Automatic annotation (TrEMBL):
PROSITE patterns: HTH_LYSR (PS50931)
Stated name of the protein: DNA-binding transcriptional LysR family regulator
GO molecular function, one term: DNA binding
Highest taxon above the source species: Bacteria
PANTHER family xrefs: HTH-TYPE TRANSCRIPTIONAL REGULATOR YBHD, LYSR FAMILY TRANSCRIPTIONAL REGULATOR
Homology family: Belongs to the LysR transcriptional regulatory family.
Amino acid sequence: MRFDLTDLRLFLAVVDAGSITHGAADVGLSLAAASERLRDMETAGEVVLLNRGRRGVTPTEAGDALVHHARAILNQMARMRGDLGHYAKSLRTSIRVYANTAAITEFLPERLAPWMAAHPQVDIELRERQSPEVAKSIAAGFADIGILSSAVDTAGLELHPFAIDRLVVVAHAAHPLAEKASAKFTDVLDQPFIGLAGGALQDHIDAQAARYGAKLKARIVLRSFDGICRMAGEGVGIGIIPQSAARRGAQSAMIAAIPLQDAWATRRLSVCACSGQELNPHARSLFEHLSTLGQELASE
C-alpha cells in the first residue's frame, strides 16, 4: 500500500475532528476529494480504516494503527524541517497550534506577531477547538502546541500559565441586567440571545445551557465579538463574550458588561505541549515564548 503525506494528514484530521467534512476542511480539500482519497486508502490496503455513522466517524482497530504510524511520520517530517530550517533560510516549516476561541481572538494575535516576525520561515497552522479537544489532540500528537482551559483533563501534558479568560454578559446600558454587579447564567437563559457563529466558545456556552435542560433563544448569529456588542448596544438581545472583547466593544456601543458568577465562566488558560514528545527547535522556541509571556502576566 502507498499513502502520500496528504493522505496521512487527511486521515489524522478526519480522526481528530470525528468528521470527514471537518477533516477535509482542515486540510484544504473538498468533501468529494477527501472521501475519494479515504476510499482509495481503504481499497489499497484492503482494510476498513473508519467506522462511519450518523454522528461522525471513528477509527477501526486498523485505523488506530494507521493513526500511530501517520503521527510518527508527520512528526518526524516536522522535526526534519525544523532542524534543517536552521541551515536553509529558504526551507519553510510549520507549527500546528490548537486553541479555544478566547485564545485565538483575544490573546494569540498580539503574542504570536513578534515571534512570527522574528521567524519569517515558520508558518502557523492555527485551528479552533474546545479545550477538551485541544487536550486530546496534543496528547495524541495531532498538534504541537495547545491553548486550553486548565479545568479539563491535562494528564500527560506540560502546562504553563497563559492568560485568564473571564466571560461576561453584554447588554444594552438600559437593560435591567445592567444594574447588577454580576449575574448567574440561569438569569439569562430566557433572554433573547446574540450568538457567535461556528466557534468553540459558542459550543461551550450551548453545552452549559444544555446542562440546565435549556436551549438559548438565538435572534441572530454573528461572526465577531464586535458585531455582538453592536447588536447588544441597540437592544437586540444579550450576548456572552470575553471581558476583553466587551471592553473594546464598550468604546463604540452603549453596552454594559456584567460578569458571570458561574465557575465555568472564569477560566485559567494554559499553553501546553505533550510531555512525552520532543518538539522541533522552532516549536520549542514558540512554546517557550508563549510560556514566558504567560508567566509574566501571572506574576503581575
